Amino acid sequence: MDDSKQFSAGFEPAVSDLHYTTNTPQVGFYLADIQVLPDDGNLLVAGEYRHISAKAMQLLLVLAANAQQVVARPALLQAVTGSQHGTKETVSSLISELRHAMGDHRVSPTYIETITRRGYRLLQPVSQQSQAADNVLQAVPSTKWSWWYALVKGSRLFRVSVAFLVGVWLFVQVMAITFPLLHITAYGMKLTLLGIVVIFPLVLLGTWLQDLKIQRVHLARSANPRARQFWRRQLKVDLGFMLLSFIAVAILGGSLKRSIDIEMLPAHSPNSTIHAAVPLLKHAVAVLPFHQDGASSVLADDYLIDGIRDELLYSLSQLNAFPVISARAMQGLPDNADNSLIIERLGAQYVVEGKLKTDATELQLEVMVSQLNNGVRLWSTRLQAPRQQLPQLQQQLYRQLTNAFGLLLQNQQLQPAEYALTESFQAYDAYLQANMLLKQFADMASFDTAERLFLQALDYDPKFAMASAGLCKLHLEKYAINRSVDEFELARQACEHAASFSSNQAQHFTVIGDLYRTRGELEQALSQYDQALQLNPGWLDAITGKALLLADLKQPLQAEQLFKEVIRLEPGYWQNYSNYGRFLYNNGQFSSASKQLERAVLIHPDSVDLQNSLGASYFLNNDFAAAIAAWQKVVAKSPLSLAYSNLGTAYYFNGEFSQAEQMYLAALDTSKDDYTIITNLADSLDVQVGRQQEAQTYYQQALLLAQANLAVNQDAKALLSQIIRIQSELGHCGLVQQRLSQLLSSVIDDFYIYYDLAIASFNCSQPTTASKLLQKAIAGGYSAALIAADPKIPANTPYL
């Protein structure tokens, strides 16, 4: 039966003719998706009952009886008031009430249309079921895959999600371009993205709740079994989609939150980096700093007290039977910290405390183990020995604590691991002093003193493997600063000496891994780090070394993950922030690098090396005033060659070439073999009138030193690019073109390399190649402002 014919009677909407259809429906009916319930005086709109007045209902029934036809105002007045002579405001008011209840609009109506000077027309036909139900009945599929396709296609959640994600993708593209122009940092971008990620589930939830009301009504009203089955499946699909979306948002949001936590920690206090609660680690042990017993007749040196505790920490960590909180993770812990604070900051269950009592000839060490949650002392011992037997006392303490934890943790298999010390007190004493200086490195003088002490320890005991490993690490760190081939050779000899002993300690594998990494033997280095981590998965030096190695292997995402993991495990140690900052610096993220280096400086403000790196990050971030201020602090504290060299570079780019020359000469006083500084000195002379011949002499000297460094790593791309650049200054353009082509055939992601090769191309009259190389340098993060200020770059070069 055609419902529209039932309610229409050929009404002609003229004011003079008021014969309209009065056969108004008195049972429930539908206008599209709105159900009209005359007996109740309600409209069911999107699952919500909306009550309307009796007159408004009567007016709607008249319009429904003449659906899709114009009904004049007088006819409507007659129907609702019994008179044709009421005010037109009466009808207008009732029409407004109906539109409000239906969610309709006067300008672009869906249900009731105003016909100017004639009346009103109901646009929707009257039916006995909703339009959505009709659509479902027509679209219910017959096959399994058709079902799923129809469910996904019909899901408003899916459509909203796709529209939202497309919008977010477009916004991210715009953000990546505009945020840097507005000087908004990576932290701001991540925070914005986190806000968008949080909004997404709220949008989905609101959409789902709206759809749920409608679908519940359809289920309740529909009598068709296939349609009901479709609506039930639609509900399940939407619910599953919601759950998967929430899980994805939780994972992505958590990752962004952790990244933001690392990116922006409070900068006002160095201790603020460890205030976040750490998850409780099962059986974790914290060895707190040992103290001097007040009854001592002779005060012990700090290195002795700290050294005994540090070596105990290292030996316990080699057991791999329970987590041992590192000393560096405890650096921000207050001396008077109570048990609850130790649990919160370190996540430990047990604590080891110690007191050292000393006199002229004897050492007495009292050590106790307590449970943190209740403060109960579980074990204690008192060891006494002559001062000359300090190494034996250290070994005895290690064995006793190992046995004690075997009982406390009910681990009968816990046995002391291989732990090679020395029998010589003099060797061990010198080793402890050297380790303290290496740990608290402030300037090059502390390196020199530590080297002397390590050598002294090996003089007393040539088979002291841990002293050889420490000496190897020291020489590698010195080589990283002064680039002396002799320094690297000393590191190699020390590492090989340490490896010659049958030692199975993570420390040795890590240091040898560092040596291989420096030589460019990356696969061998990875093997050493993996062996160290197999012995001790929590050995942070091995994790850091592997992170640096992954960065060399062009795996920045994995490398950054390890850098962040080390910071999470040791948030109070300055070197972790320094390593991460230098990684970001090398990847062109100068603003983020500055933040990490600033945190390192807050924790270790006396480090001139940190101040120097911080100045470099400021400089390439175009913050020249901050850079110069940082380097001046370094020069005031210690004559570090890199600080003088960097100050010289600042003067050079500012056009003050004579001052730059003086700074480079001062840098060479402490790093006479640094080919980079000598090259910079030659550059400052080459741009001065009449001094080109002097420059050539220094270029030749720099070339010889750079080529000598190929013995350390003949595949080092940064070194090869600098050699090409120096050869171009000497006019060896045939050789330059050959080596430049070879280097460009490999993968390069260091903007410094592109910059050196661009200058070499300019020197050899290849401006087109040079411009392309400069574009790559800028794309990698090099400052266009610095390029424009470099006198080695010809004016009006189209590099932008």
Describe the model.
It is built from 33 helices and 14 strands. With 800 residues, it is of the alpha+beta class. Among the domains are: 126 residues, Winged helix-like DNA-binding domain superfamily/Winged helix DNA-binding domain (Arc Repressor Mutant, subunit A, Orthogonal Bundle); 131 residues; 135 residues, ABC-type transport auxiliary lipoprotein component (Rossmann fold, 3-Layer(aba) Sandwich). The strands form 3 sheets. Strands 9, 10, 11, 12, 13 and 14 form a 6-stranded mixed beta sheet that branches. Strands 4-3-2-1-8 form a 5-stranded antiparallel beta sheet. Strand 2 and strand 3 form a beta hairpin. It is flat.
CATH topology of the domain at 285-419, anyone?
Rossmann fold
Approximate shape? flat
What's the number of extended β-strand segments? 14
CATH superfamily of the domain at 285-419: ABC-type transport auxiliary lipoprotein component
Strand content: 5-15%
Residue-averaged pLDDT, rounded? 78
CATH class category name of the domain at 285-419: Alpha Beta
Main sheet record: 6 strands, mixed
State the end-to-end distance.
Answer: 75 Å
Number of helices: 33
Do you know the CATH architecture of the domain at 285-419? 3-Layer(aba) Sandwich
Low-confidence stretches: 1-19, 136-142, 264-276
* Overall radius of gyration: 39 Å
**Alpha-beta content class:** alpha+beta
